[in-house]
Each structure stands twice: as C-alpha cells, then as structure tokens.
Amino acid sequence: MAMTREKIVQLLVKKKRAEPYLGRSNEALEAVQEAVELYRILVVESPEAYNANLAMGLANLSSRLSALGRLDEALPLVQEAVDIYRALAVEQPVAHNATLAQMLQNLSRCLVKLGRLDEALGVNLDQVEMFRALAVDRPAKFNRHLMLSLSMLGDVMMDLGFEEHFEVAREANAMREAL
Q1: Between the chain's N and C termini, which has fewer beta carbons within 10 Å?
Q2: What is the DSSP letter of 51?
Q3: Is 148 exposed, middle or buried (0-12, 13-18, 19+ CB in 10 A)?
Q4: pLDDT tens digits, residue range 126-160?
C-alpha cells in the first residue's frame, strides 16, 4: 500500500513541476497540497523514510502560497518544514544542514514579508551561522548563500535600527565582489 501512495506522490510532484509553465498555477497548488497530505500519511507509516520528503513538500507548498501572496498560510508550513529539518539535522547533520539553512532562508523571507522583523532577525542569525559553517568546507557551493543571508540580515538589522547593519552590509558587499 505504501508503495502505491509513494508512486502517487511522485506523480503529483512531477505534475506540480510542469503545471506552472502551462499557466495552471491553481492546479499546481492543488497537486502540491495533495502530495503533502499523502506524505503526512506515509510519515505515520515510516517517519524515517518520509520526513525529509514531507518537509520538502511543505516548503514547496509554502513557496507556492507565498508566490500567490498567501503569506499567512505559507508561514506555518515553512515553519513546520524548518522544525522537521532541525530534527533531521540533529540525527544526520551532514545530510541535512544545507537544506535546513535554505529552509531558514525561506522562513526569514516569509517573516520579513509579513513585517515580523524581530522574529526574522533570530532566523537570519541562525541561517548566517549555518551558511558560515557550510562555507568553510565548501566555499564554492555556499559562499553565495552566505552572502545572500548576510544581505538579508543587514536589511533586517537596518529596518530594526541596529547600527551594526553597516558592518554586516560591508561583509555581504565584500563577498559579492569576490564572487
């Protein structure tokens, strides 16, 4: 039974990827919603096998809702994805830290768009710390992410009135020039 559900989820995900290009974003949204609901069922049956898939589905659904301007619906989904990836990263940091850092970036964007800058600040600090650590071992892959995270952090700090935003902005600009 689980294999049948897994195949259905895979088909829905493929359908979701194709539909926006066909001008059918509502159908794509429905497909992602269906995939998330099916992954929720699969997680109950086998959490270790499907938690990462559920988290990615939640992130995709959140991203789609955010693009449609439905930020209040997008936020809890990306927060749930972050929570799942945090737990996965504790168990397997090498496998999940990069995705967790990217999920934190998505969460931060959503919080900023909702004007929840105090919360976004904490998330930004976490993502900068994670991308710094990742960039130590793989700078070619993660320096750009670190630079974008620093830029976001500097913007949030500036909007909150922190003078330290100048230092963060200088670091982000130096990284941008080096890339």
Answers
A1: N
A2: H
A3: middle
A4: 999 999 999 999 999 999 999 999 999 999 999 99
The reported pLDDT for the residue numbered 18 is 46
Q: What is the largest CA-CA distance in the chain?
A: 57
Q: Residue 106: CA atoms inside 13 Å, Cβ hemisphere, count?
A: 30
Q: What is the CATH number of the domain that holds 51?
A: 1.25.40.10
Q: Whose structure tokens read 């929840």?
A: 116
Indicate the DSSP class of residue 20. G
Neighbour count for residue 64 (Cβ, 10 Å): 22
How many structural domains is the chain composed of? 2
The residue range of the domain holding 19 is 1-97
| pLDDT at position 28 | 75
Examine the domain organization and report whether 87 and 128 are in the same domain.
no
Mean pLDDT of 38-64: 93
Q: How many residues does the chain have?
A: 179
Three-class DSSP category at 117: helix
Q: Which residues contact 17 (CB under 8 A, 6 or more apart)?
A: none
Write down the pLDDT at residue 27.
73
CB 151 within 8 A of CB 169: yes
Share of the chain above pLDDT 70, in %: 86
Within this chain, do residues 62 and 138 fall inside the same structural domain, yes or no?
no
